[in-house]
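Researcher: Let's run the pair from yesterday's discussion. Sequence first, then tokens, for each.
Model: Starting with the first of the pair.
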Amino acid sequence: MAAVGECSLPAPWRPVSLTHVEYLAGDFSGQLLAYLSLCPIFIIVGFVTLIIFKRELHTISFLGGLAFNEGVNWLIKNIIREPRPCEEAHSTVTTKYGMPSSHSQFMWFFSVYSFLFLYLRMHQTNNARFLDLLWRHVLSICLVTVAFLVSYSRVYLLYHTWSQVLYGGVAGSIMAIAWFAFTQEILTPLFPRIAAWPASEFFLIRDTSLIPNILWFEYTVTRAEARNRQRKLGTKLQ
């Protein structure tokens, strides 16, 4: 029987984590890049939250494309089986193969698909043409910058080589273009039927593919409805 204050551990404990990122102690840049490399986790959480509250088919398709992209990455890694650089530098890695980088492939898929969505899927519906183009350009630059920084972090933190990150970015970009084309040409025509399914109606899943700018549409409809209700409330109080 163990004495008071002592613990008897039959086996080493292991952490439960979706990603385990290590950086050199005392390296502020490495710490910042380590946190930045967690962007894929934040994006997935954001997608799940958006789907729960919006339940829009194109968003669900986007998340499905990210999941398919990850599956392709796993397949390529296990076919090529190129090891990571400096494996002894990290105590824990999720996979022992590094070609191509899953972080790089994920982020470039997300960035390229978002870029195509911004410029090809969303269209101008109001008169603020300059401001509309400005925020799209700024958002596109931010997407590319974050994708590059996440890719760079994997090299800086010795999880991947430059070639593994580069091929991951190329694979993610190609997958994004292919999935966007597949969504637009194959899935989008099917969205009205899917939205009409009893299960879709039960879970309030909707199709907004015919609305060119969903942000502007939701803003104008919500504003008009709020004003209408305010007028009705004012009439009742008189």
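Model: Moving on to the second of the pair.
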Amino acid sequence: MRSRTVLCIRKIGPSEEETLDNTNCLTHRPIEKESCNNQSCPPQWVALDWSECTPKCGPGFKHRIVLCKSSDLLKTFPAAQCQEESKPPVRIRCSLGRCPPPRWVTGDWGQCSAQCGLGQQMRTVQCLSYTGQASSECSETLRPPSMQQCESKCDSAPISNTEECKDVNKVAYCPLVLKFKFCSRAYFRQMCCKTCQGH
């Protein structure tokens, strides 16, 4: 709105006038106020709230939506209708503290390689970051073993006849079994029965 002063005056001389009561003026009284600047204000940028910082640890970013809106905020315009140089930032840096260090993650032990007696079993050992990505920053001195010795039970059926007690032909290490005193183990005693007999 804009306003002005409206007075009822009467000239009483070439350069002199007096102010009268409004009722003394018989003509239509001009308006004192009127609306102005009726054109719409230019669109403006409106920024919504920031998102949470991502990722959850370490350096990251916050994001937000910035819209080009009418001055009464009721209409949304294409971004090109707002001034690009005055646009608020849509991304800022943030941090929620340091991330946990990478660590060794082991899988389950696999089956024993030997169906009877001593063997080996394996498992996966991986260095993973807190997000599950492969990493090379784990300490090798803390690496868990990926292989271990295992032993499967052997059938220890008693030998009833001395003629049945013999070394299995395909086994060539029976003298070593005797030398290293493995005859006490059921698997070697069965495979090298003749060699182990009496020991």
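Researcher: Give me one sentence on the second I can quote.
Model: The chain has three helices and 13 strands.
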